[in-house]
Amino acid sequence: MELDFIDNVNEFGESVVRLYNFDKSEAIQLRDLIIQTIILKKQRLDLSSLEFIEPRNCNLIFGLFKTDEGILSSDNQTFYCALTLEGYMNMLKLIEPFCHKNTKGHQYLYDIDNPIDFLFSPAGTW
C-alpha cells in the first residue's frame, strides 16, 4: 500500500491524499488497525509507522476530533485526518468492500466540504 499527495487535481484547486496500490489483505490490515487503534483505544494512528504502507511524498495521521473536518495540513507534507468516532465508523463501512475481494474500484473515504479529498484506490485511479 502506498500513500501520496496530489495537489490541484481539478479546476477547483482541490487536492487528494491517496492510499493506493494495495490488495485485499492490506485493506484488511488497515481496517483492523483503525478498529483497534482509533475506535477501541481512542489513540492516533500514524500511517508512516505501519510496515505495509510506503509513504511517497507525505505522511497521514488519523486522530479523533470533536467535528468531522477531513484532512488538514499546513505544509502539504504532514496531513491529519480529523474525524469524529462516527466519521471513522463510516470510513470503515466504505473500506469494507475492499476487504472481501480484490477490485480495481475506488472510494472516497469521507464526504466533507474540504479542499483535500481522501481516495482509497487499489489501482490508484479515480
Describe the structure.
The protein has 126 residues and is of the alpha/beta class. The chain has one domain: Gyrase A, domain 2. It contains two helices and nine strands. The strands form two sheets. The chain has a five-stranded mixed sheet with strand order 4-1-2-9-8, with no helix packed on it. The protein has a four-stranded mixed sheet with strand order 3-5-7-6. A hairpin with a 5-residue loop joins strand 6 and strand 7. Helix 1 runs antiparallel to helix 2. The mean pLDDT is 96.
Q: Strands, helices and their partners?
A:
Elements: E1 2-6, E2 15-20, H1 24-40, E3 45-46, E4 54-55, E5 59-64, E6 70-72, E7 78-83, H2 85-95, E8 107-108, E9 116-121
Parallel strand pairs: 1-4, 2-9, 5-7
Antiparallel strand pairs: 1-2, 3-5, 6-7, 8-9
Helix pairs in contact: 1-2
